[in-house]
Design a protein that fits this description.
Two copies of one chain form a homodimer. By secondary structure, chain A is an alpha/beta fold. Chain A folds into three domains: 44 residues, no CATH class; 127 residues, Rossmann fold, CATH 3.40.50; 147 residues, Rossmann fold, CATH 3.40.50. Helix content of chain A is 42%, strand content 15%. The first copy, chain A, is built from twelve helices and twelve strands. The N and C termini of chain A lie far apart (82 Å). The N terminus of chain A is likely disordered. At the A-B interface, α4, α5, β2, α6 and α11 of A face α4, α5, β2, α6 and α11 of B. Chain A binds a DNA duplex through α2 and α4.
Chain lengths: 355, 355
DNA sequence: ATTCAATGTGTCATCGATGACATATGGTGT
DNA sequence: ACACCATATGTCATCGATGACACATTGAAT
């Protein structure tokens, strides 16, 4: 009974043949635009269903010079769920607009980022999102190819606009929270110094903001930062299999101080996770003996105790980010980019010193 | 000086024009096959570099009837890092072979899975990987379109072959480990009963294997399973924002027993994370008062204490999985599919009862 | 009867890369 | 001298969807 059983999916021409109309009519039915008689429409729809026709996105893309695909460049995707979350929500929004995203994980490596961008260009993505750009020269390749690019949350290069998160509001809330609980010796455990702003970037970097909020949080309480309580390094070492060893190491050294801190403010949940391990190992309890606050709200709810943390608006970043590049694709320019708020999420890792 | 500044990337024809040769010669240079004089080659290469030419993957795909793309269908990507890991390694292997992967997260929803598969077909993926297939009828759509499909680790449908993991070896190791440490009252906290095998699937399901290993681990020690120590439910409830509440709830009820268990074997790190929280909250310590073992080795190293767990071969799953579908694409049939081992990873959440 | 707009349908060039095929030149072997 | 092969390069149909354009037909308005 059936003859049109070629291995690949059917073509529009086959649909036309089966429905006894021209390809143009089929196209009109599928696009739901132009004049088509009810009778022709019915025949085409029947043929589509019978053959199981699915339009070929490559052919359409070639003709329309639009792939309906955007690239999303990410960092450390298997270590830090932050990136997966942002990517997930961008993808979600993309799907709702008939788009699909391509992910690429450069893992912090500029050479890999370059390869990823070349792949994106070959695939003719209509735009690119960066959730961590590395090298300005790489980002410029996109501009040269006429592909809009947008940075989400972390803006490392002036070569592309960015949707930023106001890291300060949440971090200040966190500091205020600790101070209100009576903490005076608050340690800072922070990320990659590379992120602490160097070179000509568009505004302060993520870590700069968090550090500044830490300082002004202390200042507001009439305190001055104690260098002995500050640890800057990286979020995690990839070589070590992406464990939280950095936070562990830093917290351990803090706990060995003569006068140890009563609270630790870590700028990443992964760091905080390591801090929790160090505290536990020292035979102390969180939050009874020491309070810990993280950042991002990624693995926070899975930790013991559940971690109080500064949440990032990951869904908004992804969704608004996609809509922004979509606008750029369609109108040629970006809409006004919002500054998204971060906010403190209270869980069980902070408590009053007065116990 | 430059004139060829069209917004989109240049075409092969433009390269040919600039190099003063035909498109065929350019193609020969790029493919590195066929005869080309050194002089022509040099001119083409110079033109490619000058214009910044990148081949158009859509045009190539259309012509070759190959997209060099594979779809990867995933579950609960933002809740369980297991999926991200497998996807990451499949992508990594794909890149090394000139392929790219498209991810789609059905989140356990068959209707979404269907949509994802339709998107895959429209994009003309050359094959599809499932790390959690939901509905057999969806998987059949691919067969009808002539697209090879392969299940990784979880095989829920006979409609596609699978690379399976021997969940038993690792789980048995885990049980032996606990028994050797003196544990006799070992609780089982397991996943979605849906995964405990029903209907005609190809062999036992993941949870069946884990449960059976639990039982035979007990039997080997001359113990019989105590129904009061078994909790079956789901890994996590998505409604609750993907927290580990299920493991927490189960462990809490176990700790409230007259005779509480001395060890908990959870079949997912996320479940184990919840168990750790319950133990902590009860004022007990892991591993001093109670031992906990997880499964997957995803967030295990970030937990407090670092979790002893049964590791899944996520890298092998991804890499070998990709290579298998690549073979299927090229030869039309799958190679022999291995049964990959799981293995116990010792960390700090298990200890002897004799303290 | 004539003009015009609305309705309905078909033809075909195009997007960019590819590879089958045709063609041309020079050198080697007999 | 001729046959033959290696080398070198160009022409063009093709993949499948799209949309500009042309062509019909019908009914209403003038």
């Amino acid at each position: 009974m059936n003859d049109d059983r070629i291995s690949r999916s059917a073509t529009l021409m086959q649909v036309a043949a089966r429905a006894g109309v021209s390809t143009a009519t089929v196209a009109r039915v599928l696009k739901a635009k132009g004049y088509v008689s009810d009778e022709a429409r019915a025949r085409v729809e029947a043929a589509v269903k019978a053959i199981g026709y699915r339009p070929n996105a490559m052919a359409r893309g070639l003709r329309q010079r639009r792939s309906f695909t955007i690239g999303h460049m990410l960092d450390a995707i298997i270590v830090n769920p932050f990136f997966v979350n942002v990517a997930h929500w961008a993808e979600e929004e993309a799907l709702e607009h008939g788009y699909k995203t391509f992910l690429f994980n450069h893992n912090g490596d500029g050479a890999r980022e370059r390869i990823g961008i070349e792949r994106f260009i070959e695939r003719r993505v209509d735009a690119v999102l960066f959730t961590n750009a590395i090298a300005t020269e790489n980002v410029r390749l996109l501009a040269a190819a006429g592909i809009p690019a947008l940075q989400l949350e972390r803006s490392k290069t002036p070569a592309a606009p960015a949707i930023r998160v106001d890291n300060k509001v949440g971090a200040l809330e966190a500091m205020r929270h600790l101070v209100e609980l009576g903490h005076r010796r608050i340690a800072f455990v922070g990320g990659d110094p590379d992120l602490i702003g160097r070179g000509a970037t568009a505004g302060p970097t993520v870590e700069e903001d968090r550090l500044e909020a830490y300082r002004s949080g202390l200042a507001a309480a009439g305190l001055s930062p104690d260098p002995a309580l500050m640890r800057l390094g990286r979020y995690y070492s990839l070589e070590a299999g992406g464990t939280s060893s950095e936070g562990y190491r830093h917290a351990k050294s803090l706990l060995e101080l003569e006068e140890r801190p009563t609270a630790i403010f870590a700028t990443c949940d992964i760091l905080a996770a390591g801090a929790l391990q160090a505290v536990y190992e020292a035979g102390l309890r969180v939050p009874d003996d020491i309070s810990v606050i993280g950042f991002d709200d990624t693995i926070a709810a899975n930790l013991t105790p559940q971690l109080t943390t500064v949440a990032q608006p990951m869904e908004d970043l992804g969704r608004i980010g996609f809509r922004a590049v979509l606008a750029a694709i369609e109108t040629g320019e970006f809409p006004e980019l919002p500054l998204l708020p971060s906010r403190l999420v209270l869980r069980r890792s902070t408590a009053s010193t007065a116990r």
